[in-house]
Amino acid sequence: MIELIGKNAGLIWNVLNEGGKLRVKEVKKVTKIRAEKDVYAALGWLAKEGKLAFEEEEGDIFVSLV
């Protein structure tokens, strides 16, 4: 499970590095990570490492690299 979270964190980091700020829903779609829980686990990994910034706008959560 840890390996999957790390792999997904890498996918998300690459997408954000190329695309800038994205909605969490867009991150899931672009990375093709199937389960929402896997997206949030990977986001948690990156957040714990201090690599992400989160913003909420009109009910949507946006994420970007710090």
Give a structural overview.
With 66 residues, this protein is an alpha+beta fold. The chain has one domain: Arc Repressor Mutant, subunit A (Orthogonal Bundle). Helices cover 59% and strands 21% of the residues. The protein contains 3 helices and 3 strands. It has helices at residues 2-19, 24-31, 36-48, and strands spanning 22-23, 52-57, 60-65. α1 crosses α2 (24-31) and α1 (2-19) packs across α3 (36-48). The model has no long low-confidence stretch (mean pLDDT 96).
| Apparent shape | globular
Strand order of the largest sheet: 1-3-2
Oligomeric form of this entry?
single chain
Q: pLDDT below 50 for ≥5 consecutive residues: which ranges? A: none
Measured between the Cα atoms of the first and last residue, the distance is 26 Å
Structural class: alpha+beta
CATH superfamily: Winged helix-like DNA-binding domain superfamily/Winged helix DNA-binding domain
> What would the CATH topology be?
Arc Repressor Mutant, subunit A
- What is the strand content? 15-25%
Rg: 11 Å
Give short descriptive properties of this protein:
66 residues, alpha+beta, Arc Repressor Mutant, subunit A, 3-stranded antiparallel beta sheet, 3 helices, globular
Task: Give a short overview.
The chain is α+β, with helices and mostly antiparallel strands and 66 residues long. It is built from three helices and three strands, in the order αβααββ.
